[in-house]
Amino acid sequence: AEDGYKLWLRYDRIQNKKTLSLYQDQLKQYTFMGSSATINAAKTELRNGLSSLLGKKIPETDAIKNNSIVVAPLSRLGANADKELRAQLRQLGKEGFIIKNITGGGKNYTLITANSDIGLLYGTFRFLQILASETSIARLSVSDFPRLQNRLLNHWDNPDGSIERGYAGRSIFEWNTLPGKISRRYIDYARANASVGINGTVLNNVNANPNILTPEYLVKVKALADAFRPYGIKVYVSVNFAAPIRIGKLATADPADPAVKQWWKKKADEIYQLIPDFGGFCVKANSEGQPGPQDYGRSHTDGANMLAEALAPHRGIVMWRAFVYKNREQDRIRESYDEFHPTNGKFASNVFLQVKNGPIDFQPREPFHPLFGAMDKTPLMLEVQLTQEYLGFSTHLVYLGPLFEECLQSDTYAKGQGTTVAKVIEGKVSPQKMTGIAGVANIGDARNWTAHPFAQANWYAFGRMSWNPELKASGVIREWNILTFGNNKVLLDGLQQITMQSREAAVNYMGPLGLTMLMDISHYRPAPWRRDKPAPTGTRESFHRADEKGIGFDRTAAGSDAVSQYAGALKERFNDIHTCPEKFLLWFHHADWDYKTSSGKTLWNELCYRYSAGVYTVRAMQNKWETLKTLVDPERFTLVKNLLTEQEKEAVIWRDACLLYFQTFSKRPIPAELEAPA
Ligand code: GCU
Fold it and tell me: What GO molecular function annotation could you give as one example from this UniProt entry (predicted)?
């Protein structure tokens, strides 16, 4: 059955007969040099993958034979590694790998080599992906390495099994049966992560239950760490800043109090006693009601640096989150920058500041968070969200690769042109000792892990683009499409179209032209009226600021001046309504209803047009999917078809609710041609 459990590691039989026979000729046996848990994992993967792809069992041999696969670390290659190969490997670091056809000693073989066992595992996964995509392996020469050191999933999973903003079932972490039971799912989770290069996981919600740090839970954390270790995955936990009070029986959690410092030091020692390679702490402090150092008149840096000091002897890290807002008098999008910009250079060397991609909160489209252009002395960890909190949960098909790419390739102008967010987090704009990225997981105990079959692609894309933030979303989804649906050309073209237009469709029906935060309290459906009472009566003034004159939030120098958080050239561009990219028009400007947009339409008509385009694109996705019916198994075909039907209904609701509401301000008709059938 096509239950999707295997994700992109299906290893379906090679369809093309010619390719299959070429593979069979070249891959007659395999040999591994060295032994470790990681090598065993690679061996199992290669054995299972080969027999499934090639449709027959491939024997393991002890020595290098003709037409074989050789998996060996550089240290074991001896004379089989020439100068060139050694030089090449030196460039690839601990986790990089080389896959290469070698002719030597009268034998032809495919070599997978690396500086470490984990590099071999990554190379093995890549090799299997190459085979699964049925590309030629006659002249292989692949070398690759990760551009970021820390590539983490963040689970917002709670110890009771619920998941904050989780839409794919309950948590996969079965705390009740740990440490005794290591479920098969943990291993498959680790395999999936390793196959795309994810090398760390924060096991619990940033709104952290303090109990995760009790001895009872730490042995469970250890069991997971042991299960994931062979796959190169370190475990981390989110900690509650008030843990010294909540579980430590101290009267305070003040970071300046010696007893508090001592408590964290001992806690860190206790953890590393159990888990010598434990990764560190993720912290949400003084944000949305969570405790933090400010409760005691201390700063974010005081709090982070105290934890950093406790972890430093063990080489652990702190990921201190920059997601804060509380000043109701202010433009919310300014707050994170305003609060953290002054901390530049003040964090201890093992502290990351973890910053969401945009300044609000994982909206369908936001400009990049201005901290990315402003923290040259602080390592920044980019946080993106895979779970579709604001993008239709697990009902809407929205491929997030383009969202990641848009953020990563945004130019911060921090040090002149070309200093993109990707280069900032890679430490290429200002050198950083640590680099990293985090993705809020979209995984649950649904049989297919993510509930929507296409949501698997967001997990995959996050991994691939963490490994290399310069990758193109279109190339990444092509890989996933092949690995998930096979190699049929018509099918692949169709899937490419559907996936690549899906994010823009969602932006259009949920928040076109820079509109944002229009959803109801569940974050699923539209409620643009929700925040339209001016402060202090309402919780906050609306984000869209629609009135009789126009719509949009004035963040120019004449308004909230959020534009000034961006570097000079960019600030000017955003500040001027005529140079501001249209996708951010209403993010930065309050524009008149009759303002002429680049299409020549008035703003009101353009808004109507975009909302309606969002709906039409979903219908185009439905139609395209329908044409693929005979090329996809019935199970997945029907599931996706039904989900698209729901998505279309929701898109219509978004369009109608928003336009009818905004029309009460614009008092202009909805253009008739929009009513044309799809
Ligand atoms: C969003 C989300 C919360 C989450 C928060 C965070 O506001 O709705 O559930 O806790 O982000 O990132 O801390």
Answer: xylan alpha-1,2-glucuronosidase activity
Omega before residue 364 within 30° of 0, cis: no
296 and 204 in a common domain: yes
Q: Is residue 88 part of a domain?
A: yes
Range of the domain at 137: 17-144
CA distances in angstroms from 576 to 71, 512, 525, 545, 557, listed in the order given: 57, 19, 32, 18, 10
Q: Quick one: 75 and 214 in the same domain?
A: no
Task: Assess whether 288 carries a catalytic annotation.
Answer: yes
172 Cα: distance to centroid of ligand 1 (angstroms): 20
Q: Which residue has the tokens 């530049």?
A: 344
Domain count, the chain: 3
Quick check: CB of 383 below 6 Å from ligand 1? no
Tens digit of each residue's pLDDT (9 = 90 or more) over 143-160: 999 999 999 999 999 999
Residue 206 near ligand 1, beta carbon < 6 Å? yes
Q: Report the distance separating Cα 555 and Cα 558, nearest Å.
A: 7
In the DSSP assignment, the letter for residue 59 is P
ipTM score here?
Answer: 0.99
Encode 508-534: b = buried (16+ Cβ within 10 Å), e = exposed. bbbbbbbbbbbbeeebbebbbbbbbee
Q: What is the pLDDT of residue 539?
A: 56
Per-residue pLDDT tens digits for 304-353: 999 999 999 999 999 999 999 987 677 999 999 999 999 999 999 999 99
Contact between residue 9 and residue 191 where contact means Cβ atoms under 8 Å apart: yes
Interatomic CA distance for residues 424 and 410, integer angstroms: 10
- What spacing in Å lies between the alpha carbon of 446 and ligand 1's midpoint? 22
| Spatial distance between the Cα atoms of 328 and 344, rounded to a whole number of angstroms | 25
Q: Which amino acid is at 632?
A: V
The verdict on residue 10 lying in a domain is no
Q: Give the closest residue (by CA) to ligand 1 atom 7.
A: 361
CB neighbour list of residue 428: distance below 8 Å, 6 or more residues apart: none
Assess whether the C-beta atom of 284 lies below 6 angstroms from ligand 1: yes
The pLDDT tens digits for 408-435 are 999 999 999 999 999 999 999 999 999 9
- Whether residue 444 sits in one domain with residue 479: yes
Directed axis angle between helix 117-132 and helix 184-195, to 10°?
80
Find the catalytic residue in 157, 389, 426, 650.
389
- Is the C-beta atom of 323 inside 6 A of ligand 1? yes
- Are 123 and 215 in a shared domain? no
Shared-domain flag, residues 435 and 463: yes
Contact 459, 443 (CB under 8 A): yes
From 434, 450, 485, the end of a domain falls on 485
